[in-house]
Amino acid sequence: MIEAYGLTKHYGAKTAVYNLSFQVRPGAVTGFLGPNGSGKSTTMRMILGLDTPSSGQVTIGGHTFRQLPNAPRQVGALLDAKAVHGGRNARNHLLSLAQLSGIPARRVDEVLGVVGLQDVGRKRSKGFSLGMGQRLGIAAALLGDPQVLLFDEPVNGLDPEGILWVRNLMKRLASEGRTVFVSSHLMSEMAQTADHLIVIGRGQLMADTSVNEFITQNSVGFARVRTPDGDTAQREKLTSALAEAGGQVQPEEDGALRVTGVPLPRISDLAHAADVRLWELSPHQASLEEAYMRMTQGAEDYRSTVDQRSGLQMAAAVPQGGFPPGAMPPGAMPPGGAPYGAPGPGGYAPPQQAPQQAPQPQGQPDPYAATQAGWQGPPAPASAPPAAPTAPPATTNPEDAR
Ligand SMILES: Nc1ncnc2c1ncn2[C@@H]1O[C@H](COP(=O)(O)OP(=O)(O)OP(=O)(O)O)[C@@H](O)[C@H]1O
């Protein structure tokens, strides 16, 4: 069990983690979710004794990491898969970690098999793809057969088969009674992998809930209601009528209203009784990704703005007849569209539903399947988001990472 109490970390004026308290229980996969820069890696580093809390504390089985006897046999971690000596082959990398922790050499071959790298164990890791590197990092975490496992964004760089493999591995480790704590910024992935969720934003706890509870709470249907654009009096009149009828009304970014607690026909009747015209009344289902994004809204460090392309407009330079297909200028607005999915000028953009499920593999062979056959060729191009920028070295040994 991992227990954090009032965990806080300041880096100079920057507060990376603030007053975080949670428990990560054995026998379950606990997803650690938060937008980029929300403090997930910092929290994991504090759990592993690689960073010292400014206040509060975090323990594993009642001990801080540094107090744990033979910590590498009790706790395994994947923090940054790239933190490997590139000139060393995979087997020697694992062998050196094993020797530091008194782990027998035969275990190295076992974990190479578990992650499907047995046939490339003698290849230098600098030639490894992102996905192979992740597998090597996972092998390092499994080396001591630990009861507690931490994985920071383990599916980064993995193709769909790799993602499925990691998902099944996490579940299997938890079913063996281990404590599995895995960070991600993808709710869709965590919804399929985790039993429990800890969500943080700007270093603070936003939710500590079971996945089932999160799904039940956030899978509610809602109605989108839209009054004529620019007619705020009509919008307010309808908002009051809906609130009086017991509905919860929230504004959407495009000016529509999101209504829960009042069925669609009743919304129509209420609008009619209040003499409010409707431009839209439609049923919707919130996706988990959307619920997560609403929860962490305002807690993101990095928000994009629409590119104004100041001084780079090329109106005079557009060739007669426009650009040929495939030769649009960078950032150009496609016909009738808007850059980066932003609503067009004055136009209505339907709400973007985030995909609820990560891509499911279609039965292709997994080149790294942990089978007798071992590695069967190079992986498909990575489909997952790029690796997190600031994670510390992967290690099963605190000394290694300092
Ligand atoms: N050593 C450091 N010195 C200064 N600031 C840091 C340091 N490590 C992290 N931070 C800052 O603390 C905040 C939390 O960073 P952290 O890497 O823990 O977030 P994260 O949730 O893991 O992000 P990501 O998903 O992008 O990896 C960020 O604003 C980051 O810039």
From TrEMBL:
Bias (Low complexity) ranges: 349-377
SUPFAM superfamilies with a match to the protein in the record: P-loop containing nucleoside triphosphate hydrolases
Pfam families: ABC_tran
Keywords annotated in UniProt: ATP-binding, Nucleotide-binding, Transport
Molecular function per GO: ATP binding; ATP hydrolysis activity
Annotated ABC transporter domain residues: 2-227
Region (Disordered): 317-402
InterPro entries assigned: AAA+_ATPase (IPR003593), ABC_transporter-like_ATP-bd (IPR003439), P-loop_NTPase (IPR027417)
Domain of life: Bacteria
Comp. bias regions, Pro residues: 326-337, 378-392
Keyword Heme found: no
Similarity comment: family membership: Belongs to the ABC transporter superfamily.
Protein name as it appears in the record: ABC transporter ATP-binding protein
Organism of provenance: Streptomyces armeniacus
